[in-house]
Amino acid sequence: MKKKYFPITQGIACQSKWAWSTVFLSEGITRSCHRASESQLTTENFQNFHNTDVKIADRQKMLDGIWPDGGCNYCRRNEEAGGFSDRLLHNSTPNLTPIELETNITATTVSPTLLEVFFDNTCNLACLYCDPQTSSKLADENKKFGSFDKFGVTLPILEVKHTKNLAPEFWKWMETNFHSLKRFHFLGGEPFLQKELDAIIDFINSHPNPECELSLVSNLMISKDRLVSYIEKFKQLVKTKKIKLLVITSSIDCWGVEQEFVRRGLDISIWEENFKYLIENRWIELNINQTIGPLAIKTMPELLVKLNDWKKTRPIGHFFSAISNISYMQLNIFGPDVFTQDFKKILSLMTGDREQDKWAIKYMSSIADEIEIKPRNNKELKKLLIFLDEKDRRHGTNWRTVFPWLEKELKDVV
After folding, report:
1. 187 contacts 116 by C-beta, under 8 angstroms
2. Quick one: pLDDT at residue 34?
3. Over the stretch 374-386, which tens digit does the pLDDT of each residue have?
4. Residue 9 CB burial class (10 angstroms; 0-12, 13-18, ≥19)
5. For residue range 323-344, what is the model confidence (pLDDT) as tens digits?
6. What is the mean pLDDT of the segment spanning 93-113?
7. CB atoms within 10 A of CB 25
8. 275 near 242, Cβ under 8 Å?
9. Which positions ≥6 away from 248 have C-beta within 8 Å?
10. SS3 content of the chain, % helix, strand, coil (to 5)
């Protein structure tokens, strides 16, 4: 099939704004990507989730050369620093253009081609940079210890209100529109532990879409038997052309005890066994996705060494993004020079001739360049110190023994 690329070159248009919808059923909100401004969803407006007033207004702003408010500032800052942003990456992804743009290049009411859905927050990990909306473990932890609010560090108690009302609306939408999707992302939480995964498989069996790629993002902290059982079900969907392709992206940031500290509940040995099983199933499109924050930087090279070794046997995609939603877990609060040598080592280990490999190197370089132009922010570093000490209190851990370099960086923060 000939590749068709996003056709809008006017203004600062982003393909995600036109093609992509992320729907959080448990929260009753939608965005045009996971960073962008949100719109509230109800049983009355759900069927129009891709064309809310907010999304249409944001598309028009982009056509007019204006950056929308909200999460779009992440890409704006990256591009203003000369970097390679999510927007530029997504505009380089083929075959996601909404059909309406074939006849009207400035259409702002369009049909989605990529749907990403979060049913609920069922998850077996409590990653430090995650939130209770997407981790039931964190929600349980916050409920156990109570809400925390000190110096701008807030750990809230979650109340889920929307799922029972909106899930039927989602299935109603799927009945009418699934056939037109090019990609369907099922996320969590942990997808392999959510009861809706079986419902998705049953739905696809009765509503095949041979042009659609099914994508799951998993922490792979499940039993080998459970993983194998589901992979066999997905294999049948692909074999019988019920879907075009299965894409599994595993979340992993760095390596060793540092990773197990950051992604609380993760066991590196179990993750690696499951990932090697997926490597053997070459019919799966396999990726890793890293969340880049200060606690992952020092052992990220160890992960990349392993990734390079795995890539000798088959292609493995490499995706990542820097933490942007938590001010005190961003790299740029440390000021210039702190991570310079780390990024040099990381970039020296990033190899590959595929287009995606080249994008990954550009993107990582952009992150490295951006943090070098920001001054040290002791206010945010103090928040990080407060946050880590509170997590130690809750978990009975000692972050100082795991990250001795960080203890030195924060010793003068008051």
Report:
1. yes
2. 73
3. 999 999 999 999 9
4. exposed
5. 988 999 999 999 999 999 999 9
6. 96
7. 23
8. no
9. 215, 216, 218, 278, 284, 285, 286, 287
10. 45, 15, 35
Q: Is 337 left (phi over 0), alpha (psi -120 to 50) or beta?
A: left
Q: Give the mean pLDDT of 103-116.
A: 97
Comparing CA positions, the residue from 21, 70, 17, 14 lying closest to residue 49 is: 21
Q: Calculate mean pLDDT across residues 121-145.
A: 94
Which residue type is seen at 6? F
| Closest among 159, 175, 165, 161 to 44, alpha carbons compared | 165
> Which pLDDT band holds residue 220 (cuts at 50, 70, 90)?
very high
CA distances from 364 to 106, 257, 262 (A): 32, 23, 20
Residue found under tokens 């064309």: 51
Q: How would you class 367 by CB atoms within 10 Å of its CB: exposed for 0-12, middle for 13-18, buried for 19 or more? A: buried
pTM given for the model: 0.94
Of 185, 304, 197, 187, which Cα lies nearest the Cα of 252?
304
> Quick one: CA torsion of 116, 120, 123, 126, rounded to 10 degrees?
90
**Residue matched to tokens 């859905």:** 117
Measured distance CA(79)–CA(87) in Å, rounded: 9
* Per-residue pLDDT at 300: 97
Strands 243-251 and 285-292: parallel
pLDDT band at 35 (very low <50, low <70, confident <90, very high): confident
Tell me the backbone φ, ψ of residue 195, rounded to 5 degrees.
-60, -25
Q: For residues 162 and 48, give the distance between their C-alpha atoms in angstroms, rounded to a whole number.
A: 17
Give the DSSP per-residue string, 234-292: HHHHHHTTSEEEEEEEEE--S-HHHHHHHEET--HHHHHHHHHHHHH-TTSEEEEEEEE
**Residue 164, Cβ density class (10 Å: 0-12 exposed, 13-18 middle, ≥19 buried):** exposed
Q: For tokens 């006017």, name the residue.
A: 10
Total residues belonging to the chain: 414
Measure the CA–CA gap between 322 and 78, rounded to whole angstroms: 11
Per the structure block, which two tokens stand in for 75?
């890409």
Question: What is the per-residue pLDDT across 140-196, written as a single tens digit (0 to 9) for each?
Answer: 999 999 999 999 999 998 775 555 679 999 999 999 999 999 999 999 899 999 999
3-state DSSP call for residue 215?
strand
Asked if residues 243 and 208 have their Cβ atoms less than 8 Å apart, the reply is yes
Rounded Cα distance between 84 and 347, Å, is: 15
